[in-house]
Design a protein that fits this description.
mainly alpha
């Protein structure tokens, strides 16, 4: 996961894929989608809860 996220530019060199980094990325995406009215507040809350508690891919 770390290598894939680095290739996509989601992580800086030396930075590792972590739950916190994943949640930060989801939070930024959700904020943008909310601002553009693509999702509701309820959906945004669901996505953030899933990011914080859902199973992540293995490293």
């Amino acid at each position: 996961m770390t290598r894939a996220w680095r290739r996509l530019g989601l992580l800086k060199p030396g930075e590792a894929f972590t739950r916190d980094r994943y949640v930060d990325c989801v939070r930024a995406s959700v904020a943008k989608l909310r601002k553009e009215s693509f999702i509701t507040g309820k959906v945004a809350t669901f996505y953030l809860a899933q990011a914080a508690q859902g199973e992540l891919p293995k490293q």
